[in-house]
Design brief:
Distance between the termini: 64 Å
Number of strands: 12
Number of helices: 6
Shape: elongated
Radius of gyration: 26 Å
Strand content: 25-35%
Structural class: alpha+beta
Oligomer: single chain
Helix content: 25-40%
Length: 308
């Protein structure tokens, strides 16, 4: 591709940015180059008070994205961010002032597929569960392959279930919801929680364990997709989260509830444990389900079981 300069980019931007909406006196846009399969462009026009001025179309953002892509393709120096500023001319028929700056911002660099932060998170979770029982070493298998950016359905490289044995008790726990997401830079422990289910060990055979483990993986998918589930569980104490298929009858729903446990030592602080409890429809019969997440009914069902 032929070299594409900043001056050429400004000349290409001028006609598009010059079609500013009424009331706009300036504008600022930021575009990022393609990183881990993702790029972005944000910004817009401002009025004299610095307030955002609505636009009728996304045309400026599309032009900015195209310009950023061409600059990236012909760049001699590495950059990952483009900042464009536009200023309305003081007098008619004068040219608007447009500046374009490129820079390399380390803080927006996405995590690489082999970033050691992922295994730091996994080690913290294993240490936590080892303090509560014996990990079944041949059970922590990946459920679903990660893509080239190390992203599974949980947005990080780990989408697993751990089995933890203690006298008379079996615990199944998600292993990966609190792994920092791959391909982004935000300092977050994934969706900031992990799930677990507890069983009477004497009542489950190998097939039963596998069945509940598969269910917990699927619940984890829903939690990862919802992102704010941990916040809602913290707010309400317990929620009616999802329905179960007929395969699990008489159990028909999953309740997610707060637990006192927290996993420490993760890259960006600790995260709470969330208990997943299957309940039968009879356990919430006659309860009012009209509040957020059916929270009152969920708390009622757990209280009858002695789960606080």
């Amino acid at each position: 591709m032929a070299a594409y300069s900043i001056d050429e980019a400004i000349r290409e931007l001028a006609p598009a940015l010059g079609k500013a909406p009424a009331g706009a006196v300036s504008g600022e846009w930021t575009a990022t180059t393609m990183q881990a399969g993702h790029s972005s462009r944000t910004g817009g026009y401002l009025d004299a008070e610095g307030n955002h001025v609505p636009e009728d179309s996304r045309h400026p953002l599309d032009i900015i994205a195209d310009v950023a892509e061409k600059l990236d393709a012909s760049a001699l120096q590495r950059f990952n961010k483009v900042v464009i500023r536009w200023k309305k001319p003081k007098f008619p028929f004068m040219q608007a002032k447009i500046t374009l700056e490129t820079s390399y911002d380390q803080t927006i660099m996405p995590r690489d597929p082999d970033d050691p932060i992922y295994e730091t998170a996994a080690a913290a979770r294993r240490a936590f569960w080892q303090s509560r029982g014996t990990l079944q070493e041949d059970f922590a298998v990946e459920r679903g392959m990660a893509n080239i950016h190390a992203q599974t359905k949980w947005f990080g490289p780990h989408r697993r279930i751990l089995a933890i044995h203690a006298p008379g008790r079996l615990t199944l726990a998600t292993d990966g919801l609190s792994t920092p997401w791959a391909g982004i830079s935000e300092p977050e422990n994934g969706v900031e929680c992990e799930l677990f289910m507890e069983f009477d060990a004497a009542r489950l055979d190998t097939a039963g364990i596998e069945n509940w483990a598969n269910l917990l993986i699927n619940i984890g998918d829903l939690v990862a997709d919802g992102h704010c589930v941990a916040r809602d569980v913290e707010k309400h104490g317990a929620i009616l989260f999802c329905r179960l298929t007929e395969d699990y009858l008489p159990m028909s729903r999953i309740v997610l509830s707060r637990d006192a446990g927290r996993i420490d030592g993760l890259p960006f602080g600790s995260v709470p444990l969330i208990r997943a409890t299957p309940i039968a429809e009879a356990e919430i019969e006659g309860q009012d389900l009209s509040d957020d997440w059916g929270a009152a009914a969920a708390r009622h069902a757990l209280a009858k079981r002695g789960i606080r």
